[in-house]
Each structure stands twice: as C-alpha cells, then as structure tokens.
Amino acid sequence: MVVPQEKPKIFDFECLGGFFTAQPSMKQEPTYALTTHPDLGLIPHTYAKNANSTEDIHLSPWQRFANHVEQLNRNAKNGELYKVLYVGRHGQGFHNVQEAKVGTPAWESHWALLDGDGDAVWADSALTDQGMREAADNGKIWRRLIEQEKMPWPALYCSPMRRCLETARLSFEDLAASQGKPYQPMVKEYLRERMGRHTCDRRSSRSWIQEHYPSYLIEPGFTENDELFEADRRETDEEHIRRTRIAMDDIFENESSCFVSITMHSLASRIVMRVIGQEPFRMSPGSTTVFLVKASRS
C-alpha cells in the first residue's frame, strides 16, 4: 500500500443530527439495509429566527434547508465550515451476485480472489442489469427533487471503480444535461472500496477510465495502473479510515460547493460515516443517504 502512513489531519468532523431521519444502528439491526427515502430523509423545518416570521414558508423544504446551510456558513466561526454530503452506494454488481450465490465464507476464502467463474466476471465488477435499474431509479429521485423541490445541484465525486463510474452516469448524466450543468464527476482514488485480495476491488487503468468515461475529471496524481491493490493482503480498518479521512479533508478544503455527492461502496460508505462521526449503517445497492457535516480546523 502507498497510502501515507501519517498525515496531519486538517479537520475534525461532526455529523449534525435533527435534519435527516435517524438511521438504524448496525448494532441493533445488523441485517437492515437502508433504501432511499423519497425526499432523501430531509425533515421539514422552518429556520426563521423570529417565530412570527413568514419569509420562507413559500419555499420548499429543500430550499429552506439550503438557505439554512448558507446561513450556517455565513455565520461560521473562523476555521469552521458546513457541507451537505449525499452518500450513494453503487447498484448491484456481479460480485454482489456471486457472494450471495456462494455465501460469504466461500466468497472471502476462494471466489473473491478470482476474476470470474467462466459465466460472469467480477474483477473491477460491472453493474448487473438490476444494478443499472437501481442506478437509474436513483436518478429519478434526484430528478424529482432537483426539478420540483429545487434541491441544490451538488458537486459530483466518484470512486474509480467501474460499478461506481457507471452508477454515477446512470444517476446524473441525463439530469445534468437537462439542468444545463456540466457532467464532470471528480474521480478520487481514496473513495474506493477496501483494497486488496478481492479482484472486484482492483481498479482498471486510468486510460480505460478516460476512454470509457471521457467527461469525468481525474484528480492529480492518479496513476495509470492500480498501485494500491495487493493480491495477498487486505487493507486494515485503520488504513481504510486513514485514507478516507485524507479524502474528506481534501474535499472539505478544496471543494467550494456546500453540497457534495459521493458515489461509492457499501463498506466505504460506512467508513465515511465513522470519519464524520455518524454511527455506521448498511445501505442497499443504488441507495442514497444524506448528512449535514460541520468541519472544524484541527
């Protein structure tokens, strides 16, 4: 692994409650998997300081929330900022199907180490037909909220794995065109799934990504070949948390938008939750959840 062993953190993160519907604890409901709420779980509020004020009652809940986030940033103390993170999981991939077919113990010990079984290939796994439908359905929710509820258009970030690149395309590309927005998700290496051993988590080359997703932006320093994957060792929890924190620091430090969408993975999404101070929970394939995060410079 070439992930930095030590790098001073830039921010301390805090996930703020009371804005989105509470999600289940993995400890209490380990088999539960979140599906996308029709309004992405936003709890309607009026945010006017004066209880008699009616200045925002004609706005949609998402418009009122966006104004509130803008106000939080305008009034933030020196070194503090607030961002809304939309965390999306890719749709079903061929690796998900194979693990469900053979069971997790057999997957971990044997099948995950192979590129495929002769019928399906799961190295840098593509989406299944069901996974493509899940990604497209996610896009329908986004379209309704953007067009009807005036939810802010986010900056788009994406894991470099094939299943995430395709999920983002199916979710956002047509919507971006209809909104007159450039469709240029930023591909970030450290947003990928836990690395090592599993061939589904060995990414394709930079050239392959550029050829198949030419509108995507690729962050500086992104290597041609996957230099992070090790066939004989799986990344540890601590290593995964460390590189995710580096990715979050970079996004909060350099992304100007207060609204950020990240298309990523099941375990990777739970690591993001740990980094921002949210108790982790499972997400279903193709689902999206949202967090309001306060960042304070360390």
UniProtKB/TrEMBL annotation:
UniProt xrefs under SUPFAM superfamilies: Phosphoglycerate mutase-like
Which Pfam families did the record assign? His_Phos_1
List membrane-spanning regions: none
Protein name as annotated: Phosphoglycerate mutase
Native source species: Apiospora saccharicola
